[in-house]
Amino acid sequence: MQNNDKNAAVIRVMLAKIGLDGHDRGIKVVARALRDAGMDVVYTGLHRTPEEVVDAAIQEDVDILGISLLSGAHMHIFPKVLELLKAKEAEDMIVAGGGVIPDDDVKELYQMGVHKILLQDTPPQEIIDSFRQLVADRGAR
Amino acid sequence: MINRIPSMELAKRVREGHLRAIARLITRVESGGDPEVREALAELYKSTGNAHVVGITGVPGAGKSTLVTQLVHEYRASGRTVGVVAIDPSSPYSGGAILGDRIRMGDLVSDPGVFIRSMATRGTLGGLARSALDAVDLLDAGGFDVVLIETVGVGQDEVDIVRAAHTTVVVNAPGLGDDIQAIKAGVLEIADVHVVSKADRPDSNKTIQELKAMLMMSLEPGEGIWRVPVVPTSSEKHTGFGELMAAIDRHAEHLERSGEITQRRHQIALTRVVKVAEEIVRDNFARDSRSQTEELLKKVTQRELDPHGAAVTLLKAMKETIHEAH
């Protein structure tokens, strides 16, 4: 799994927990899986605001901003994050979501501009594969 | 596919303090830095040399990230902007890393006067020291008044990074049992300022006294010599961070007043040039590992040629074909 390709940049991911959601077991498992797949993972810790997360993601210049939500606040938080990214001219950042999100909302989130939703039962390998695919599709930056 | 902004264009924006441009150029440098990126960095280097660069090191668990967070608050309160380059170790198995400093520095975001960038030791394809110090240059050129580099004080690369700072702060924690070990490892000598963190703990006095005693022994007599201070800090009680900033400022003044800053700049230039040269050689070595190198290695294993002779031959041959960018 070692990244031996000298020309390939290491994929940088920020994993964020926003708002009043204290469930971080899942996101830590994901962080570990992505690290073991050779990615650099920045974890924000719990109870962040959308502003804090977007500012940090821009400074860290991550390829993917992954937000885990198990609080039901996804329809408030994702639009806010997308809006902030746009306001800060960072709309080329890939936004992914995970956690517990109803199917209807998933559809709506995709329409809004969230690139990928991976729900709570997604196996780690699938997350790794889809992250790699998302970055490959975006191309060099 | 997205529209890739040329690095020279980004360099222009860096000079205007555009945070996103700084962030993107750091990424490009970290990814190996092709000639187009190097060219932009070379141009930006002319705009550096204004920031005071502070290296912060110490054993894992000494409280470096907490200290950096508090120190940034002090600098902000004094009206200065701060860039932070925080280096975390990568997994030696996958090369990936979990960069956790963001958690501890959480309360610093959403302030445009603070820029924090996490770096992994192995995520850098072109070598850690070069990437980290290029990142420092980018923050310097971007107009930050102070740049802090935080790294674990293990490994030569990490020590070299800290030595490429104007002021080096070594963080010691009480009760880690490494007081004497730290001295053995030569960490005592590289410190311009010593911090004893977690000073609210009862055993911190012992660490402070031990450090002071060691510093006394190595003290040279004379006027105008920098006396390395020992600053106790406690994030629990919020004490000592103002004193720490003052000690760093005093050291900066001392460098200017005594003229030592000239030597320090010379030392930093030397460290950086040698580091990059080492990397170029190593990279070229890896590049043509098939042809000539293999031949030479065979001769060395068969005792036809000694390692020194082989190295000299290799360097002579490399001179003709050196790859500048890698």
Mind explaining what this structure looks like?
The complex is a heterodimer of chains A (141) and B (326). Chain A is 44% helix and 18% strand. Chain A is of the alpha/beta class and 141 residues long. A 5-stranded parallel beta sheet of chain A has the order 2-1-3-4-5, with helices on both faces. In chain A, helix 3 (74-87) links the parallel strand 3 (64-69) and strand 4 (94-99). In chain A, helix 1 crosses helix 5 (124-138) and helix 2 crosses helix 3 (74-87). The longest helix of chain A is centred in the last third of the chain and has 15 residues, at 124-138. Chain A is globular, with a radius of gyration of 14 Å. Mean pLDDT of chain A is 89; it is low at 1-7. Chain B is of the alpha/beta class. In chain B, 51% of the residues lie in helices and 13% in strands. Chain B contains 14 helices and 8 strands. A 7-stranded parallel beta sheet of chain B has the order 4-2-5-1-6-7-8, sandwiched between helices. In chain B, helix 10 links the parallel strand 7 (193-196) and strand 8. In chain B, helix 11 crosses helix 12 (260-287). The A-B interface holds A 1-3, 6-7, 9-10, 12, 31-32, 34-45, 48-49, 51-52, 55-56, 58-61, 88-90, 92, 138-141 and B 1-2, 4, 19-20, 23-24, 26-27, 30-32, 90-91, 93-100, 102-103, 106, 109-110, 115-118, 120, 123, 125, 326. Strand 2 (40-43) of chain A pairs parallel with strand 3 of chain B.
